[in-house]
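[job 0417] fold request received: TetR/AcrR family transcriptional regulator
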Amino acid sequence: MDGDADPGTVRPGGRTARVRAAVLRATGDTLAEQGFAHLDLADIARRAEVGKTTVYRRWGTVTGLVADLLTDMAEQSLPRTETGSLLGDLTANARLVRRTLTDPRQGALFKAVIAAATCDPRTAEALHRFYELRIQEWAPCVQQAIDRGEVPEGTDPHEVIRAVSAPLYYRLLTSGIPLDEAAADRAAEAAVAAARAGAYA
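[job 0417] inference complete; emitting structure tokens
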């Protein structure tokens, strides 16, 4: 640990950014390995090799840590893909969701956060914010499809994006069936077909 100022008082990219990155990495690792119930601020500080008082002062609670982790994940998520067709764009979206959910660390992390969100309001709020940011990132693909005449005027872009990932999350959380690329492609195709038929208008 160097002798710089406390987190929040130095430029981004300095000690503040390094401490945040280390703490969030330790939080994500613990969530993925052991679940929400095993998150402990003192243990996270130890794993991140930062002072316990720094973690308590900056994040305060386990839910504060999880909220910041989700914010960071939303900020780090890949930008949308623009292929020139709604099917191409939504297929890219579905495959990105599928890769995230099948990643050994990320998939376990999302399962833990979703489980925690069912009984912890602050975690639920952070999870909702995460998904709202991701939906906002991809919604312009649908608006472009409306502008091109691929889907009807008045189609709700947010609902179309939700429709792509919904079957993938359902399969992950309820079925135990492997989440393969064919499932991602089907989710995109179904969302496009429904949007063209006016289901989201």
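[job 0417] notes: Residues 1-11 have pLDDT under 50 and may be disordered. DSSP finds nine helices and no strands in the chain.
[job 0417] exit 0
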